[in-house]
Amino acid sequence: RQILFVSLKSCWQTAFELSKFLYNLSPEQGPLACLLVIDTLALKVEDYNFVLQFIDEFNHSLKLTMLPNFAYSYSIAQFYKEVVDGISHEHSSDLLQKAILNYPMVAQLICEKCSFVIESNSLFVMNEKVFKSHTRSLTQQCKLYLERSVDLWKDTKVVHWFKHNVDIVNTNHADMPGYQESLHRRKTVFLSPPLNVMRHIFISDISAVSALLPNTAFESSQDPHDPMPPPSSYSDYQPDTTRPNAGNPVMAFINSLMPGYDQNTQNEQEIGGVNLGGFLAPAGEGNRAGQWGEQLRNIPGDFGVALRDMLANLYIQDQDNQDAMPEVVDEAQNDDEIENREIVEDDLD
Q: Rounded to whole angstroms, how far apart are CA atoms 184 and 242?
């Protein structure tokens, strides 16, 4: 989200550096799919060599050019490098024609956004059947790339080069190598978006793209700090409504003093977060809480007396198994103290 915030303020260099840092944290798994944005940010800061070197180094292992954003970014980065070097645009034109052939929706969206007039618009790029050959997942990535990179294609140096190559693909697409493969790839490779891509789109908060997310992405509640967590993840935090004795803060405090306390335990008869009756029950092999209860009775001094009295006063009867609160016997007190207590109780009666 910080990358998006600084991008909205046109702090492209900061956003680019943050995206590289985030990608390097987990380059293999890519939990936030930084590959969908890092190339565009590199072009925004005019670091064309980064895009070219990144693709040359990782394209074999990551299949980068199979992503719509990298397919188009590769061509435009090569175009600007050729401008700087003062050479022809033969290589960049080949790259752009392959990108248009594989992902014509991006070219169509660019033409619509930039109000480009394509003379042979009925043959390929603007063809409705070709448009429908894109799966829902592929359409998401195409629109996501367009929303972020449309300004790059409005550059006067790029416009003529782009329109010229669109005309070439429109006219010769059926005879171009890889045409049939591109049709098959659009229908079979991008069937459903992976979790990291859905998470990336959710965080991007682009309404035109988020609307295409599958309904399964919103089956569970989404937290802004942790959207769409992986199925194998767990959280140490649990809402108070799911914790035992959550409604009684005094009980929760007393439980935290118990040996072996575990706030995540859900079973009331387990150690920690337990029904207080378990601590006061007789010790035995099947009652671990009762074993701790024996230790509780053996706590010496005034603290032990006060703690046992508090437990007795806060005891919550288990209505399923018990009919009355059991008597708490303080074995640490001597006989004289017990007799004195009985005399006082008789006088009160």
A: 49
